Amino acid sequence: MRTIVLMAIFLVSTPFFSQSDDEKQLRAIYDKALTNGKAYDWLNHLSNQIGGRLSGSIQAQQAIDYTKKQLDSIGLDRVWLQPVMVPKWVRGTPEFAYIETKPGLTTNVPICALGGSVATPDGGLKANIVEVQGIEDLEKLGKDKIAGKIVFYNRPMDPTKISTFSSYSGCVDQRYSGAAEAGKYGAAGVIVRSVNLRLDDYPHTGSMSYGDTPVSKRIPAAAISTKGAELLSTTLTLNPDIKFYFKQNCKQFDDVQSYNVIGEIKGSTYPNEIMIVGGHLDSWDLGDGSHDDGAGVVQSMDVLRLIKANGYKPKRTLRVVLFMNEENGLRGGNKYAEVAKSKKENHVFALESDAGGFTPRGFSFDCTNENFDQVLGWEKLFEPYLIHMFVKGGSGADIGPLKTDDLVLAGLRPDSQRYFDHHHAENDTFEHVNKRELELGAATMASLVYLFDKYGTITSKKIKG
Question: pLDDT tens digits, residue range 442-460?
Answer without folding.
Answer: 999 999 999 999 999 987 5
